[in-house]
């Protein structure tokens, strides 16, 4: 592994996340993958180890704010299990809108419980007819006096049903199109807010992916995040901030796959010698490692940029997510190749890693959408220089 010159604190966070993930998630990951059981046991252990508030300032109950520490922890958890990794990271996705756009009162009310890990958060944007085209959302939030009345259904929401706090994007004024969306904080248990279909997925199977259903759900106007009409600004700025976390998930899954491939290649003998001594196999391992380090370097550089206070990081954030997730997909497929037929079997973890890696190319904006964003950001950057 390259030397990323981590500070002592960063090394401590990485080592702690690695230790807790290995103790609590490693023995259970195959079972959770099979049954789809939500990994509460691991999540409670991360909370007990004070790992849930790394990206949150101390004033709001966290131990940060540090996107880098959050990425290091997400990577180590995902190295053991992608499903647990996304469960951990999606709580941050649900909380970042509150951190970025919440009032002092909202932050003080909601963040300490999320930062301590006693409550999980979730983020609800996607709907059946609105994925990449988020402006097509149909859930409405209509103002009535001091309240908003929500109606509609969100689809595929990570931590849905398990989280207590939800950041939701809904249309407050359809006529205004993209400028007619607003963001709200919703609490589990609010009358009219329920949960629908739970998905049966290819990978990250222990994570909860569920519908959120709003039926005349009344919330007070104090639950609005930012101003009316800012819903998509909230969503886009949140995703800019959290995409390095998807990159970190991808890097973690890929590292897990490389670990397995290296170990297996040294143990497995064919033609009277370990397959690790066959140059064709060595070249696969060399490419896996090189792609992995390039992905990790992009993710860490982006996290460090954000932590250093740079205001413009859409380009870096999309590039980190795009490259790391494409690398993870290739690296996990290659790991199966190194293990041969055994790699295809459920007795070995690499087939799960491949299934887990796939989603990192899809959520928080597909990789096609990342390429669109990268090109736009590049053109904008170039135009501003002339
Ligand atoms: C397991 C899982 C968990 C998720 N968790 C959450 C969550 O917590 N919260 C949340 O809000 N959402 C969540 N999502 C939704 C996720 O973000 C969307 O699936 C994703 O944004 C893509 O939308 P879509 O699936 O509708 O695909 P579509 O938008 O229908 O895209 C289909 C294909 O067309 C391509 N495409 C579409 N438009 C363009 C374009 N303009 N240019 C180039 N290519 C394009 C896409 O890249 C893709 O290949 C989750 C999804 C899954 C599967």
Considering the chains and any ligands shown, give keywords for the structure.
386 residues, four-stranded mixed sheet, four-stranded antiparallel sheet, binds flavin-adenine dinucleotide, 52% helix, 11 helices, alpha+beta
* SSE succession: HHHHHHEEEEEEEEHEEHHHH
Task: List the ligand species.
Answer: flavin-adenine dinucleotide
Q: Classify the beta-strand content into a percent band.
A: 15-25%
Strand order of the largest sheet: 1-4-5-8
- Helical content band: 40-55%
**How many beta-strand runs?**
10
Task: Describe, in short, the structure shown.
Helices cover 52% and strands 15% of the residues. It is of the alpha+beta class and 386 residues long.
Task: Explain what this protein looks like in three dimensions.
With 386 residues, the chain is an alpha+beta fold. 52% of the residues lie in helices and 15% in strands. The chain has eleven helices and ten strands. The strands form three sheets. Strands 1-4-5-8 form a four-stranded mixed β-sheet. Strand 2 and strand 3 form a beta hairpin. The longest helix has 37 residues, at 231-267. It is globular and about 80 Å long. The protein starts with 7 loop residues before the first helix and ends with a helix. The mean pLDDT is 97. Residues 90, 123-126, 131-132, 156-158, 201, 209, 359, 362-366, 368-369, 372 line the site of flavin-adenine dinucleotide.
